[in-house]
Amino acid sequence: MDISNVHEINASNSRGFGIGIAINLAFILVEIGYGITSGSLSLIADAGHNLSDVLGLALSLAAFIAERSKPTSRFTYGYRSSSIFAALFNALFLVIACGAIGWEAIRRFSEPVDVPGGTIMIIAGIGIIINFATALLFKDGHEELNRHAAFLHMLLDALVSAVVVLSGFIIKMTGWHWIDPSLSLAIVVVLLWSSWSLIKRSFAMALNAVPPSIDVSAVVTRLDQLPDVINVHHVHIWPVSTSETAMTAHIVRSKIQNNDAFIGSVADIMKKEFDIGHVTLQIEHDGCDNEIIC
After folding, report:
1. Where is the Cation efflux protein transmembrane domain (predicted)?
2. CATH for 3-206?
3. How far apart are CA 108 and CA 169, in angstroms?
4. What's domain 216-284's architecture?
């Protein structure tokens, strides 16, 4: 990928996150206001879900900006890894929000509140449109963790809002006010289910785990297939950010000529076949007794 494409993608990310934050923040204020005045916990729960997404979008936007930061003598990769912590914090915030909403929902079963089904239907219906429109801003970013997380969150928000509309209709037609806390607990389950994968992925990235899209053994095999390569060892692959990967490796060659050209060729192969953009190699001429990864 050339540098102009990188700038284009970053600009698209910034616009998408900025628009998503503005639209959803405005709707959250409306939803919380109507949720409080009407006593609808499901509206407040939906607003809490949307608020967690706005916070996640804001953190992700800040992380995208940080990814463009220049390296320093202390932070040699700049602040690129901040996008990993943004994704992790976003996931953990969802879990905390779920706990608060679930606790209040359980309390509502013993202290039911009379809520207007019609108001719930109207506000949640607006939420479907806003959340789906916001999801479309991130539909092409599945290869990048924060952008993919934003897409999934907004789609789930639209689904949750649709369920809230249905609950409002049921309350309006039947007067079953226990539907409101029941739906809130259902929203909690959906949130926990949707955030679990994100938690695992972001936590693994924070621990410098190999990205799931990369098979280390396949990388080693590919390096072993290169001309004049005797042995490959000390292979380390880790995420620099949610969209960048780095690798170091020691390669034993039978020839000492043209090492610069060889290193350049390996870097091109790693980028093209494994999407590893930061490759550092140490060329050796004495073997490591057939060790593959030391």
Report:
1. 19-204
2. 1.20.1510.10
3. 19
4. 2-Layer Sandwich (3.30)
